[in-house]
Specification:
The protein is mainly alpha-helical and 140 residues long. The chain is 56% helix and 10% strand. The chain has seven helices and three strands, in the order ααβαβαβααα. It has helices at 2-9, 25-31, 51-58, 71-79, 90-102, 104-121, 124-139; strands at 34-38, 61-65, 82-85. The protein has a three-stranded parallel beta sheet with strand order 1-2-3, with helices on both faces. Helix 3 crosses helix 6. It is globular. The mean pLDDT is 90.
């Protein structure tokens, strides 16, 4: 259905691929100019899609259409790695896309900030240390 729609719209710049193996995810993310996270406005505020950490690590700017009071928005804002827009607001989403399209240097800066944040906060050893600290607190 999507392929038919793509053809009807003459969208020759859109490529639809079948599901890829998980090992190819870093390569696919690195090929993108911008990563996107889309949520409905009524998503539970503590919902944190795992793809946010992966997108931050990819070194690409993120446009996140997520609730402003949620965990996802806070992570992206804290990282400095992307733009947060109101969910289910096509105009806000289009504005964010155009902002990064017209300002590729900003997209690069956001991607670099996100990558640095991911390295400092989501690296395996760092995460392991945080879990050990949490377990130590719980036990005592």
């Amino acid at each position: 259905r999507l392929e038919k729609y793509r053809q009807q719209q003459g969208a020759s710049n859109v490529l639809l691929l079948p599901f890829q193996p998980r090992e190819k995810l870093p390569e696919m993310l690195a090929a993108a100019d911008v990563g996107m996270v889309m949520q409905k406005h009524n998503v539970i505020s503590f919902n944190m899609p795992s793809k946010i950490q992966v997108l931050l690590a990819s070194g690409r700017a993120i446009i996140a259409s997520v609730p402003a009071d949620g965990t996802a928005a806070r992570a992206i804002e804290r990282s400095g790695g992307g733009l947060v827009v109101t969910p289910e607001d096509p105009e806000a989403l289009a504005t964010a896309i155009l902002k990064l399209y017209k300002n590729p240097d900003l997209a690069t800066i956001l991607g670099e900030r996100g990558r640095q944040y991911a390295e400092e906060n989501y690296a395996f050893e760092k995460t392991l240390d945080q879990y050990e600290k949490l377990f130590s607190q719980v036990i005592s």
